[in-house]
Every structure is written in structure tokens, then in C-alpha cells.
Amino acid sequence: MALIKYPSVNSCFKEDAFEVILKGSHNIGIAMATPHGLVVPNIKNVQSLSILEITKELARLQQLASDNKLSSEDICSGTITLSNIGAIGGKFGSPLLNLPEVAIIAMGRIQKVPRFTDDGNVYPASLMTVNIGADHRVLDGATVARFCNEWKKLIENPELLVLHLK
């Protein structure tokens, strides 16, 4: 849904033609560390899939990646990549673009940290660091920040996601 609100984040950059191509399909790349190295298969047309369909496709891609049997179709045509560096203990990182995509999101592991109420009381909060790498030939910092804020709002309020489920 954040990609619908900020369609330029779901685009690619054709270097030879110096052209930006907005993509209608949300083909979400999932960076996966495997015994054979890092691979980035993508779940195609996420905007048209139910949560169950996304879960099944993710499981299929994980199995193929683990078995080193991903096809070229599984890894081509991504429009944005997610990298869960938290799965391997990472807290934050500087994700590198999966060209020709113009954005990548790296999510760190969830950490318990102390926070303070307005009246000075301490409470535990669960925080996850998110870093976005972007191609500034296409995306300016303000667009990336607004996209990140929208994405954060959806992650922190899953009931908003439910409103848009298939």
C-alpha cells in the first residue's frame, strides 16, 4: 500500500536510456542468505495476492533457494527488495541496490530498549531499525522519508493492512 501511495519507489532506472519506468506490478524481492550465497527471488504481483498466497509463494521460493534451484523467472523483474538483516543478528546496515531497482529496505533485529513516558516513567519498547537505500537519480530524500513513514505506519498498525486484504 505504501508503494501505491509512492509509485516512484516501485520503479526502475534504465541507465542506457536515462529513463525511469514506473512499474504497475509490485514484484517484491526477498534477499535470502543460503548455503550457496545470497539470492534475491521475488514474489510477483504482491498487490494482487492474499496473505495466504504470499505466504505460500515465500515458502516455495525459500525451498527453491535452499535447494539452489531457483529459475531465472524466480529472480528476474523485481521492483523493490526487502532484506531482513535481523534474521542473522544485524541491527542496521547500508543496503545496496539490486539494480535496476531504485529502492531496497533493510530491517534490523527487534531490540528491547528503555523509553520514557511524558511524566518520566521508564517502559520497555520493542524497536526495529529500518534503513532504505535509494537511487537519488530517481528518488529524492523527501520522497524516501515519506515512503518510510507510510511503511512504518502500516507495520506498526497491522489493522490498516487488514482493510486492504483480498
From TrEMBL:
Pfam families documented for this protein: 2-oxoacid_dh
Cofactor entry: (R)-lipoate
Bilayer-crossing regions: none
Assigned keywords, A-Z: Acyltransferase, Lipoyl, Transferase
SUPFAM superfamilies given in the database record: CoA-dependent acyltransferases
GO molecular function annotation: acyltransferase activity
Gene3D superfamilies, sorted: Chloramphenicol acetyltransferase-like domain
Domain of life: Eukaryota
Domain (2-oxoacid dehydrogenase acyltransferase catalytic): residue spans on this chain: 1-162
Homology family: Belongs to the 2-oxoacid dehydrogenase family.
UniProt name for this protein: 2-oxoacid dehydrogenase acyltransferase catalytic domain-containing protein
